[in-house]
Amino acid sequence: MQPQQLLQEMSVELDDILQFWLTHTQDHMNGGFIGRIDSDMTVHPQAPKGLVLHARILWSFARAYRHEPRPEYRMIADRALHYLETRFRDPLHPGFFWTVDHLGQPLDTKKQIYGQAFYLYGITEYILATGRTELLDLAEELFEVIEKSFDPVHSGYVDVFARNWSRDDSLRLGEQDQNAVKTMNTHLHILEAYTNYFRVCRSSRLEAQLRRLLEDTLQHIVNRENGHFLMFFEEDWTSMSDIISYGHDIEGSWLLLEAAEVLGDEALLARTREITLQMADVVLREGVDTDGGVMWEGDAAGVVDGDKHWWGQAEAVVGFVNAWQLSGEERYWQAAANCWSFTRDHIVDRTNGEWFWKTDRAGTPAQEDPKVSEWKCPYHNSRACFEIITRLGEGVQPQ
Question: What pTM did the predictor assign?
Answer without folding.
Answer: 0.96
